[in-house]
Amino acid sequence: MKKFTKFAFLYLGLFLAFALVLSCIQLYVNANAMFGSKSSDANYWITMSKAITPDNIGRKELIGFNREQIDSISKWEEVKDVYPVVSNDFKVSADGGDFIPFYTDMYLEAVDDAAIDIEDLSEFKVENNTIPIVISREYLNLYNYGFALNQGLPQITEDFAKKIEVNINLRLKDKNLRYKGKLVGLSDRIHSVLVPKHFLDSINATQDFSRDHKDIFTRVLVKVNDASDQGLIEKMGEKGYESNQESLRSAKIKSKLFLVLNAIAFIGAFIFLLCLFIIINFIKMEFLEKHEEVSIKYSLGYSPRKMVSSISRYFSINVGIVMFLCLIAVSVGQYYLGTAEITQGLLSPYIWLYMWALVLVVPLIVFLIVNLLIYRWLIRSWRF
Amino acid sequence: MNSIVLDGISPKYFTPKTIGSTSIWNHRTTFEKGGHYLVIAPSGSGKSTLATAMLGNHFEYDGTISYDGVSLKTQSVEKVVGFRKNGIQLLFQDVRLIPDLTIRENVLLRTFAKKNAAFEEKLQSYATTLGIQPLLDKKAKNCSYGERQRSAILRSLINPADFLVYDECFSHLDLNNKKNAYGLITSVAAQSSSAVIFFELNDLPFGHDCRKLNL
């Protein structure tokens, strides 16, 4: 094979290897941009519960989290904070009194104020026989867009909802209590009917008909850096915990995408190693073809190390040029991807800045490896 | 470099024919800087083996060869090669020119890519003395053996080291060329205070001032 053809195949192989590896790195960065990346500053909230199985149906002590399990969750490295959700241990009902003719059995839950996504919680305390309530915005939406439309009832705005007062009836073991219930806010984070934790704890403490349920929390709110963290998903899977957060679904897509990217990057790295091997053999062949010249230079006082360095430098510079061309190609690709409508501005039109450093790093690594291996080969096997 | 000492050396893998009558094998011989030496030995007595061993090209001998008291065997390859720039150089019996390079390029290999007007002046002057001036731009592979031998002598003188070793460097030269080459070698050696060591089959066929040694 002619020297030119050999060179052409070598550099084509290198270009392919670099293109695969660089594309994988850039796609990894893109995937993080689209699915959310890990950041110590970021806060994501997920509501964790246990999967319902035939073994734990109806058994609060099994379906809920005990203190030990909550402590264990709080020690996971992906978890920043854990807020157990307390539920009522007594019967609760609500009615509209004379103003709105309705009656319903209901439930109450409570969580630390720090976990509630309402800015002003100054009204969130029980005063004058009035219980402040925070409900999920989804509940109001369900009423407005589902129930009210079908039943011919009027839609209710958030401000109007805050003005409505209903009766909350608590049926305790030795007495019944009646409170006024007043909506103070809507939560996007927690799908529940929340009342102040201090109030619910104090009422629960007076009940003793379900001691098995003491310190059992049916759900926990968990604050994490990255709701799509693969480690978190795996741990939840192992323990049988689940969450219906959208981020968990995207995490599964992300993990599969990363698996594919890893496989492609592995192939790229393998081709790169193959090219490195070819370069080393190429240089060996060059030395063998120029055996006479090298021997003469050696006998005249030319250092073998310098001769090897000179040829390694030549190949390293060429590798650098191939890497540069490859980065340009990936940059063009990224620009078109970043400005395409389908990405909706989520991607940068530029490649990850640190990738440019590879123009120096990779040739330097090639130089060091090739230099070392060829020099050792030359000194050990060469007959000058 | 001021001296090369051969101390009790003998080839490892063969016994020279002259081992019984030699003044070098298994003896102690010192070559001093500035001296002129003529080592005479018949074929098969190990001239090339000794010359290449003195250059540090191999260590297939018992005993020690030392440069200024430093044994070659204890030095790294890079150190040994380092001595060749200014310490010692050898003109091999087979002249060793790179066939695809011109005579000029071959000669200038000894200048280690240093561009210097003095080298060009020397090149022209020595080439004229040796009668190879018209060959300077000819490829080595297109020159006769005698022309290549004279070119190799020129290469050895362009940037002379402290010790100039010649292994049968006149073998393909006529008497006149031998005299010219010998005269040039000794005069350049005198200018650079270099020692000259000739390895020859017989005594030189003209008057000389070399100290004779039998191998």
Question: Radius of gyration of chain B over alpha carbons?
Answer: 17 Å
Radius of gyration of chain A: 33 Å
The string of secondary-structure elements of chain B, in order, is: EEEHEEHEHHHEHEE
CATH topology of chain B: Rossmann fold
For the record, the count of structural domains of chain A works out to: 2
Number of H/I helices of chain B: 6
Instruction: State the end-to-end distance of chain A.
Output: 27 Å
Q: Any idea of the CATH class of chain B?
A: Alpha Beta
Helical content of chain B stands at 25-40%
Q: Based on helices, strands and strand pairing, what is the structural class of chain A?
A: alpha+beta
At the fourth level of CATH, the homologous superfamily of chain B is P-loop containing nucleotide triphosphate hydrolases
Tally of discrete structural domains of chain B: 1
> What would you call the structural class of chain B?
alpha/beta
Q: What does the oligomeric state look like here?
A: heterodimer
Number of helical stretches of at least 4 residues of chain A: 11
Report how far the terminal alpha carbons of chain B are from each other. 23 Å
- Beta content of chain B comes to 15-25%
Mean pLDDT of chain A: 85
How would you describe this protein?
The complex is a heterodimer of chains A (384) and B (215). By secondary structure, chain A is α+β, with helices and mostly antiparallel strands. Chain A has two domains: 3-38 and 251-381, no CATH class; 44-224, no CATH class. Chain A is built from eleven helices and eleven strands. In chain A, the strands form two sheets. In chain A, strands 4-3-7-8-6-9 form a six-stranded mixed β-sheet. In chain A, a hairpin with a 7-residue loop joins strand 3 (91-95) and strand 4 (103-106). The longest helix of chain A is centred in the C-terminal third of the chain and has 44 residues, at 246-289. Chain B has 215 residues and is α/β, with parallel strands linked by helices. Chain B has a single domain (3-214), classed as P-loop containing nucleotide triphosphate hydrolases (Rossmann fold). In chain B, 33% of the residues lie in helices and 22% in strands. Chain B has helices at 47-55, 77-86, 103-108, 117-130, 145-158, 175-191; strands at residues 3-11, 28-32, 36-40, 61-67, 70-71, 88-91, 163-167, 195-200, 211-214. Chain B has a five-stranded parallel β-sheet with strand order 6-7-8-3-9, sandwiched between helices. In chain B, helix 4 runs antiparallel to helix 5. The longest helix of chain B has 17 residues, at 175-191. The model of chain B has no long low-confidence stretch (mean pLDDT 92). The chains are: A alpha+beta (384), B alpha/beta (215).
